[in-house]
Design a protein that fits this description.
This protein has helices spanning about 25-30, 35-55, 75-95, 115-125, 140-160, 170-175, 220-230, and strands spanning about 15-20, 60-65, 100-105, 130-140, 185-190, 210. It is of the alpha/beta class. It has a single domain (about 10-145, about 185-230), classed as 3-Layer(aba) Sandwich (Undecaprenyl pyrophosphate synthetase). The chain is globular, with a radius of gyration of 19 Å. It starts with 14 loop residues before the first strand and ends in a 12-residue tail after the last helix. The structure holds 3-methylbut-3-enyl trihydrogen diphosphate and magnesium ion. 3-methylbut-3-enyl trihydrogen diphosphate binds near residues 20 and 21.
Length: about 240
C-alpha cells in the first residue's frame, strides 16, 4: 500500500473489470513459448486476490477467454483450455480460504463438457462466499450477450410473458449474463492496447477507463493500486453539469 491512503480514506472502485492483455508479447520478450505467457498471466491474476480484498474491491471481473479467442491457433486454444482446467482443479482450496465467490459470464456450453461441469460445480460450491466476487468471462462477447438477451425477451413477448410497453433498461439488464451483478466502476486494460474488444459494452456505459502499457503477466497488486489511485482522483458527473 506504499504511499497510498488506506482503502477507507479514498474513494474505492468496488467493481473492477480487467482486460488481461499482453501474455503473448510477454512470452516472446522472454524467449518463451506463448503458453508460458498464459501461465504467467494466470499467476498474475491469482496474486491479485488477497490485495484486491485489502484494497476494498468487492467484485473483480476478468476477461479470461473471449468468443473471438476461439479463432486463435488450435494449439493455443488447447493450451488455454487445459490451463483453465488446471487452474479450476488446483485453485479450489485457495478460493475457499480467500472466501471467493466465483461467477461465470459467457457461453460456458461452448467449452468441452468436463470443463463446463467443473466450472459450474465450483460456481455452485462458492455461491455463499462474500470475501470477493470474481467474475470470469469465458467464451464471452458483449454483442453475443446482448443478442441472446434480446432473443430471450423476444420469446417472452411472443408467448405473452412480457408486454413490449414494459421494456426498459432494467428488463434488458435482467436478461444479460451479468444480471444481478453490480456494474463496473473501473475498467483496466493492460499492454497498451486502447480498445474495448467487445467486453461488457452494456455494463460499462459510465465506467471509468484506465489503460496501462504494463503487459498482463507483469501486472502486480501495486499496478492495481495505481489504477485505483487514478480512479479516486476522478470526478464523475454521469452526464450532469459539473457546476451544480
Ligand atoms: C491475453 O494475452 C490472453 C488472452 C486473450 C487469452 P494475448 O495472448 O492476447 O497477448 P498478446 O496480445 O499476444 O501479447
Ligand atoms: Mg492480445
Amino acid at each position: 500500500m506504499s504511499g497510498s491512503p488506506p482503502a477507507s480514506a479514498r474513494h474505492v472502485a468496488r467493481h473492477v473489470a480487467i482486460v488481461m492483455d499482453g501474455n503473448g508479447r510477454w512470452a516472446s520478450a522472454q524467449g518463451l513459448p506463448k503458453v508460458a505467457g498464459h501461465r504467467a498471466g494466470a499467476l498474475a491474476a491469482k496474486n491479485l486476490i488477497p490485495r484486491a480484498k485489502e484494497l476494498g474491491i468487492k467484485t473483480l471481473t476478468l476477461f479470461t477467454f473471449s468468443k473471438e479467442n476461439w479463432g486463435r491457433n488450435p494449439q493455443e486454444v488447447r493450451d488455454i483450455l487445459s490451463l483453465i482446467l488446471d487452474e479450476i482443479q488446483s485453485s479450489e482450496s485457495e478460493l475457499q480460504r480467500q472466501e471467493v465467490r466465483l461467477k461465470i459470464i459467457g457461453a460456458l456450453d461452448d467449452f468441452p463438457s468436463d470443463i463446463a461441469e467443473q466450472v459450474r460445480l465450483l460456481e455452485a460450491k462458492s455461491a455463499h462466499y462474500n470475501g470477493l466476487t470474481m467474475i470470469f468471462a469465458l467464451s464471452y462477447g458483449a454483442r453475443q450477450d446482448i443478442t441472446q438477451a434480446v432473443s430471450a425477451i423476444g420469446h417472452k413477448i411472443a408467448n405473452g410473458q412480457i408486454d413490449p410497453d414494459d421494456l426498459d433498461e432494467a428488463l434488458i439488464a435482467e436478461h444479460l449474463w451479468t444480471a444481478g451483478l453490480p456494474t463496473p466502476e473501473l475498467f483496466i486494460r493492460t499492454s497498451g492496447e486502447l480498445r474495448l474488444s467487445n467486453f461488457l459494452l452494456w455494463e460499462i456505459a459510465y465506467t471509468e477507463l484506465y489503460f496501462t502499457t504494463c503487459l498482463w503477466p507483469d501486472f502486480t497488486p501495486d499496478h492495481l493500486n495505481a489504477a485505483l489511485d487514478s480512479f479516486a482522483n476522478r470526478k464523475r458527473y454521469f452526464g450532469k453539469s459539473r457546476h451544480v
